[in-house]
Amino acid sequence: MLANVRQVFVAQDRETGCFFDLNVLPVRSLTHAARADCRDIVVDSMRIAMEEGQIECPSGFEVHVFYEGDD
Prior knowledge:
The chain is α+β, with helices and mostly antiparallel strands and 71 residues long. The protein has 1 helix and 4 strands, in the order βββαβ.
């Protein structure tokens, strides 16, 4: 049974399927994806990264929510 279950949000590029790590670099593994406590943080971070030219998401991105906890 999992303890300390929490809701987390991640961003995924629609075109490539990549997630993004804390440095807003694309990663294939959900294990390495940056997690946020709320959807707004993900959306704002992605918007800023795109406006500043750090990343390109021509097809946009999706925000996924899931639950994770300690084993």
